[in-house]
């Protein structure tokens, strides 16, 4: 967990108190910016700073479900729940995250042939309504915004979105285009997080004077 990820939760916490924001998506323009890494650190900061809230982390990256793979990719998850017409209670697919007693996790589950279909199923928005009944803050690891249609479709359900970009790599026009598209959907953007930032002077000097 870094100061940047802690700052994200401070900003989210301020808006959470005012507007009861609950569903928080994290995505970037392309797959290499480190969205999953940022999601884990933001979740860790949330557990530390929002100890009185119930927090859920969701892996919705159907292209690279690394969070689900680290949890040994259980059969049950949000994809089977959606595509099998709610054949089982959604709570059966949720379990504690291994490294935290205060963080719960909802994996993709067995994806099979649903990779490009799952996010477009008619019940995907119902899922968040159900989860909001049990969790105060839901942090979602989305696919890259320009990797497919999933991130665009799902972004409409977000109360807030954090955009992750790679410092010195992500091009400004791509970020501007992404911001414009999100705003056209009336999506609230919490901010932009610079990942993989290189410090050419010692960190302690940068933090003290900049």
From TrEMBL:
Cellular component aspect of the GO annotation: plasma membrane
Pfam families with a match to the protein in the record: CBP_BcsQ
A single MF term (Gene Ontology): protein tyrosine kinase activity
UniProt-listed InterPro entries: Bact_polysacc_biosynth/exp (IPR050445), Cellulose_synthase_operon_BcsQ (IPR017746), P-loop_NTPase (IPR027417)
Protein name in UniProt: Cellulose biosynthesis protein domain-containing protein
UniProt organism field: Desulfonema magnum
């Amino acid at each position: 967990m870094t100061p940047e990820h802690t700052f994200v939760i401070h900003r989210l916490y301020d808006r959470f108190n005012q507007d009861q924001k609950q569903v928080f998506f994290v995505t970037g323009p392309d797959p290499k910016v480190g969205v999953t890494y940022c999601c884990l650190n933001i979740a860790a900061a949330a557990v530390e700073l929002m100890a009185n809230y119930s927090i859920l982390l969701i892996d919705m990256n159907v292209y690279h479900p690394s969070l689900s793979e680290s949890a040994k990719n259980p059969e049950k998850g949000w994809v089977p729940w959606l595509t099998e017409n709610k054949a089982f209670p959604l709570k059966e697919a949720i379990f504690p995250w291994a490294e935290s007693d205060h963080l719960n996790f909802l994996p993709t589950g067995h994806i099979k042939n649903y990779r490009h279909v799952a996010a477009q199923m008619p019940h995907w928005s119902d899922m968040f309504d159900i989860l909001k009944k049990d969790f105060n803050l839901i942090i979602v690891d989305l696919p890259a915004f320009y990797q497919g249609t999933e991130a665009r479709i799902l972004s409409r359900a977000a109360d807030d979105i954090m955009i992750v970009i790679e410092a010195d790599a992500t091009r400004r026009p791509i970020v501007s285009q992404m911001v414009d598209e999100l705003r056209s959907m009336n999506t609230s953007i919490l901010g932009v997080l610079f990942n993989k930032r290189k410090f050419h002077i010692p960190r302690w000097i940068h933090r003290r004077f900049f």
